[in-house]
Amino acid sequence: MRIDLHSHSAASDGSEPPGEVVRRARAAGVGVLALTDHDTTGGLAPARDAAREAGVTLVPGMEMSCRRDGLSVHMLAYWFAPDDPELARERGRVLEGRDGRAAAVVAKLAGLGVPITLDMVARAAGDGVVGRPHIARVLADLGVVPTPADAFTAEWIGTGGRAHVPRYATDPARAVRLVRAAGGVTVLAHPKAARRGYTLPDAWIAELAAAGLAGVEADHPDHDPAARAGLRGLAGDLGLVVTGSSDDHGELTGHRLGCETTSPEAYEALMAGRPG
């Protein structure tokens, strides 16, 4: 049984509808898939329908946008009650921040001479949660950058870039507590992704473990062997479950579902760690 606990659909910044993500997972030999769209559970209902048809076990999830001391922190949440009022309220604040940032980024880009509008970005997002990847797609379509990935630089919308705008995000320790209170568990996503321009200090991970963090994503396409080995050692010291995931975004990441996986033992440990 292949287990992939981090994937995205068009409900956020993936390229395909939730049902298609599930069908691709099945074709890739993935038997357990977590759909973890950014700050939304909007894709879970169609994903469940597709999972029943495909014979895939769907893990309901979400990737929460967090921030501490100016650094982006991504928190994977699983098996939580989506209608929990505190968690839903916090998710609403994050989504409002996303919408406001998109408008501000578009305004900055327009000021730099880019012929972009908020309507273009909204069309790129479709029914999904608006994010920087949608702005990047529009920039590529306009010929401003060769590919969407080239937009995430200091010249354009990368962190600290000319058109970058910060937004509201949840404190990571608060996110851990909110998800636990909603009956779920949390795993810290790609914390040592140096190629993304950041690595989280080990001391932060220790603090999150003390707050109730259940696991850490060590096997990720953006982690080199040294990062993976270091995270495994740290997880052992802190009693955290080690997971592996593709972080697939469809065509944007090369259709890589199942390229990294979580062991059945780690999956069972995460399930056992759900608050009673």
Automatic annotation (TrEMBL):
Region (Disordered): 1-20
CDD domains from the UniProt entry: PHP_HisPPase_AMP (cd07438)
Record SMART domains: POLIIIAc
Domain Polymerase/histidinol phosphatase N-terminal: 3-68
Classification via InterPro entries: PHP_dom, PHP_domain, Pol/His_phosphatase_N, Pol/histidinol_Pase-like
Domain of life: Bacteria
Alphabetical list of PANTHER family matching this protein: EXONUCLEASE (PTHR42924), POLYMERASE_HISTIDINOL PHOSPHATASE N-TERMINAL DOMAIN-CONTAINING PROTEIN (PTHR42924:SF3)
Record's protein name: PHP domain-containing protein
